[in-house]
Design a protein that fits this description.
The complex is a heterodimer of chains A (501) and B (305). Chain A has 501 residues and is α/β, with parallel strands linked by helices. Chain A has three domains: 233 residues, P-loop containing nucleotide triphosphate hydrolases (Rossmann fold), CATH 3.40.50; 172 residues, Rossmann fold (3-Layer(aba) Sandwich); 68 residues, no CATH class. Chain A contains 17 helices and 22 strands. In chain A, the strands form five sheets. In chain A, strands 6-7-8-3-9-10 form a six-stranded mixed sheet, with helices on both faces. In chain A, strands 16-19-20-13-21-22 form a six-stranded mixed sheet, with helices on both faces. Chain A is globular, with a radius of gyration of 24 Å. Chain A starts with 7 loop residues before the first strand and ends in a 6-residue tail after the last helix. Chain B is mainly α and 305 residues long. In chain B, 74% of the residues lie in helices and 1% in strands. Chain B contains twelve helices and two strands. Chain B has a two-stranded antiparallel sheet. The longest helix of chain B has 27 residues. The chains are: A alpha/beta (501), B mainly alpha (305). At the A-B interface, helix 10, helix 11 and strand 18 of A face helix 7 and helix 8 of B.
Chain lengths: 501, 305
């Protein structure tokens, strides 16, 4: 690492929201040509720190230093002038406009009358730096994959002379190929002298791409270490403040009778001839990346895909696809990966969310029985590990992990154990809550549920499942029993399967 | 959290200020003006309660409720010769059918609710013109007293309105379909994934809206003893203003009939006060508009976190 003052630093920074101190005396610095990971559970203060860097929040104590000098960053616009750029989690590109237009959109340097050719050249140079040199700048952004859009976003920051790029969970929705693209772009930028702040839940990425890692816990800095000097276990201990013990529960598998049988499930262009049999007390994992069809297969089984065809039997009864109600009548419940969009009623109370799937059970002649509903909500909250004191709070006040438990609680509100279809059950969930969700999944297996989940997290797939089905581009590649397969094999299956050729 | 408290505080202060302003206005508490106030609240209030259901389910507003009101009034007047009860039932059924058809289009075919309501409006006006030849309807007939006059000093219209409020809030709070309507408005995709028939919920919301508009139409027809399609002009806008002033969210999923009752009352009180204080008609519109805008902005700020 070159000498000289750090590009960006905070010293003793404190930030309060009302009575809550969300950052307590945090001191850290990022040097030139450094990729720094910032890790911590949800609520540890990561996003607040980012907002301090980008001028959204002002500190209540301590100083922010740019190039070693104490500096106030009063607004995001000022942050842009200091060369600090945030690559947002939710992309802010205008899909109907071209890549070129998007790159210059909102840039203060572009005058009303400008020389288009020059801008084009500069945009091109920026695109080249992020590995998109072959992309015609006239392409509308809507035609690009999410991974490429992310790269365009980075290129856009480069044209604004960004020196420090902040990436907030950039890989959450990307496939492995796209993640590799982002990584090589980041490495190239680093060698050009840029600094990068990388916020992630995925510990593997910390060791793969980052030089050093700062860990936050409850608003305090636990420490900053070079990634070469620590291992995963150590990093987890820093994040949790204790050893995680076993992330994945241990269990003895006692599968019962078949609960879900799927034959020839197809969704045109997305899922091809999918077959599956899942038993009571069993976890079946569909391992696959974005575009593998794993998520869509479960959506189809839940009755949410209009074009789905195939023969599905649940509890020995054939169910007709394309209707959620019919799936539910056969005790097949679905938990979406898109919590805000499809999983949770954010402005309704936790209790109202919990009973959303069982209103019919607790009403008579169309009248709600409020007493029964209250009891049911309390019972479901207890079963899913949702804090009983929060039953009346709106659901959007819960953290990602707690919202996921909420969705879980909703799905188990039926009369008797059934089939739970879960898409990416731990997406955006921090490490601590993740272990709890895994424990819940096994607990409900023991109670006689059958769980089918789709996941792109290979560690999770291997840690949780009795049966693993690997998928690639809508086809099943292989089916393994627990212990029959290792991480490399599953990874190979879902990225470049030999069998698919 | 503190910001939310401040906003709630401002709301209470606003309502208190309006109340003080009203009570210190000479003549406000006179029987005549209270009577006028209750009438105004009742006619517009029924439509606003109906509008609440449409807004709550995430369908913004209907521009057709005023016309539904007028058309139901015409049906009521035209069928009075068959007796007052059959006429009332017929008007109610008509209002329900007209809006339920729109609800089906919005719910099952995902049609844009505003455009559907504009189409409904133009069909109703055209249809009514054909049926009546553009003439006002003056029916003969007895028994209109059921829908006007007073009971124990309270205008009958107000009693019908309060009944509408009670039934509306009951549906929202205590029936399954009411809860489902709120869920659909809160997050339609989540409702679908939860196995809720969102289209049916939306259709029921429109049924409620149509019934409420028809009740208002019958009350107005009884009061004037005649009717034409102008009867409900402008009611859509005042009704949506009342819904929003009450604090029901324009994006749906949060709100109640009781809130709408408060919204209607606030607007009506402001109008009566301005009238009594001798402001010109133009100034009344202007000031009411500004106050409505201010109150709605207050809600918007309060919801932002």
């Amino acid at each position: 690492m070159p000498d000289g003052p750090p590009i960006l630093a905070v010293e003793g920074v404190t930030k309060r929201f009302g009575p809550n101190e969300v950052l307590k005396n945090v001191t850290l610095s990022i040097g030139a040509q450094e990729i720094r990971a910032i890790c911590g559970e949800n609520g540890a203060g990561k996003s607040t720190l980012v907002k301090v860097f980008t001028g959204v929040h002002q500190v209540d104590g301590g100083v922010v230093l740019v190039d070693g000098k104490p500096t106030a960053i009063p607004s995001p616009l000022h942050a842009q002038e200091f060369g600090i750029a945030l690559v947002a989690q939710e992309l802010s590109l205008a899909p109907a406009l071209s890549v070129l237009d998007n790159i210059w959109l909102g840039n203060r340097k572009v005058p009303l009358f400008h020389r288009r050719k020059e801008l084009r050249e500069q945009a091109r140079a920026a695109l080249e730096k992020v590995g998109l040199g072959d992309l015609p700048p006239e392409t509308p952004v809507s035609q690009l994959s999410i991974g490429r859009r992310q790269l365009v976003e980075i290129a856009r920051m480069l044209t604004r002379d960004a020196r420090v790029l902040i990436l907030d969970e950039p890989t959450a929705t990307l496939s492995d190929v796209e993640i590799e693209r982002i990584f090589s772009a980041l490495r190239a930028l680093k060698s050009e002298g840029k600094s990068i702040i990388y916020i992630t839940h995925r510990l593997g990425e910390v060791f793969e791409i980052c030089d050093s890692v700062s860990v936050l816990r409850n608003g305090e800095l636990v420490g900053t270490r070079p990634t070469a000097e620590i291992d995963r276990g150590e990093l987890m201990r820093m994040m949790l403040g204790r050893s995680l013990g076993e992330m994945y529960p241990k269990w003895t598998n006692m599968p019962g009778k078949r609960m879900l049988v799927v034959e020839h499930l197809s969704v045109p262009g997305i899922v091809h001839d999918f077959n599956l049999a899942a038993r009571r007390g069993e976890v079946v994992c569909l391992a696959g990346q974005v575009g593998s069809g794993a998520i869509e297969a479960l959506r189809a089984l839940a009755g949410l895909v209009a074009a789905a065809t195939g023969n599905v039997t649940a509890m020995d009864q054939p169910i007709r696809l394309r209707s959620v109600q019919r799936a539910q009548r056969a005790q097949v419940q679905f938990i979406s990966e898109d919590r805000a969009g499809e999983g949770v009623f954010l402005n309704l109370s936790v209790a109202q969310n919990l009973v959303a799937n069982c209103l019919g059970l607790h009403s008579r002649f169309g009248m709600l029985r409020h007493g029964d509903l209250r009891e049911a909500a309390a019972k479901l909250a207890t079963a899913a590990g949702v804090d009983l004191a929060r039953l009346r709070s709106p659901a959007d006040e819960l953290s990602g992990g707690n919202q996921q438990k909420l969705a879980f609680g909703r799905a188990i509100s039926g009369d008797e154990p059934g089939v739970l279809l879960m898409n990416e059950p731990t997406r955006g969930v921090d490490v601590g809550a993740r272990a709890e969700i895994y424990r819940l999944i096994r607990e409900f297996c023991d109670r006689g549920y059958c769980i089918v989940m789709a996941s792109s997290d290979i560690e999770e797939v291997l840690g949780m499942s009795d049966i693993i089905v690997s998928m690639y581009r809508g086809r099943q590649i292989a089916t393994y029993r627990r212990g029959e397969v290792n991480q490399q094999q599953v990874l190979a299956d879902i990225t470049h399967p030999a069998a698919a050729a | 959290m503190t910001k939310r408290r401040i906003v709630i505080g401002i709301r209470i202060v606003t309502i208190a200020a309006i109340a003080v302003f009203a009570l210190t206005t000479p003549g406000f508490t006179s029987p005549i003006s209270i009577n006028a106030l209750l009438n105004a609240i009742s006619f517009i209030g029924c439509v606003a309660v109906g509008m609440t259901f449409i807004t709550l389910t995430g369908n913004i507003m209907s521009l057709c409720l005023g016309a539904t009101l007028s058309a139901s009034a015409l049906i009521f007047l035209a069928s009075l010769s068959a007796g007052i009860l059959p006429a009332f039932v017929l008007a109610l059924a008509f209002g329900i059918i007209v809006t339920a058809a729109q609800g089906l289009l919005v719910g099952y075919f995902r049609a844009n609710p505003i455009l559907v309501s504009i189409a409904g409006l133009s069909l109703l006006i055209g249809g009514a013109d054909l049926a009546t030849g553009g003439q006002r309807i003056y029916p003969g007939g007895e028994g209109l007293q059921v829908f006007k006059g007073r009971i124990a000093g309270i205008p009958v219209e107000a009693l019908y309105f309060f009944a509408t409020v009670v039934i509306g809030q009951f549906v929202l709070s205590f029936t399954r379909i009411g809860r489902v309507m709120t869920m659909v408005g809160s997050n339609a995709r989540a409702a679908t994934a939860a196995g809720i028939n969102t289209a049916a919920a939306i259709t029921w919301a429109y049924v409620m809206a149509g019934a409420c508009a028809a009740v208002s139409g019958v009350l107005l027809a009884a009061r004037y003893g005649s009717g034409d399609m102008e009867l409900g002009t402008g009611y859509d806008y005042t009704a949506i203003a009342a819904v929003l002033v009450g604090g029901t969210a324009i994006q749906g999923g949060s709100g109640s009939v009781v809130r709408t009752l408060i919204g209607v009352t606030v607007i009506a009180v402001i109008e009566v006060v301005l009238l009594l204080r001798g402001f010109s008609q133009q100034l009344q519109y202007l000031i009411t508009g500004l106050i409505v805008l201010a109150v709605i902005m207050l809600h918007t700020i309060g919801e932002r976190r």
